[in-house]
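Notes, p. 3: input format for complexes.
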Amino acid sequence: MSKKINKKKFHKSYIVCKCKQVSLGEILHAIKENGATDIDDIEDYTEAGSCCGSCRSPEDDVGEEKLELYLSEILEKFVK
Ligand code: FES
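Output follows (80 residues plus FE2/S2 (inorganic) cluster):
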């Protein structure tokens, strides 16, 4: 199953956090099942965003090569 985020489709197995190898599916699980409502919650449940921090938001992305999907975008889309 894939999810549409900002017009682009990402499969649940898409790795959002490269450092900790956390997939979109795991992040959605943290939001839907554990009730995560912000980036710190997601970090607590999945460890995503706890290393270089680039996956947290475009502003936090310090890498040369920019990521395609950020935790901030996922939260915006799925936390109501
Ligand atoms: S890519 Fe998520 S902490 Fe580095």
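The helical segments are 24-32, 39-46, 71-78.
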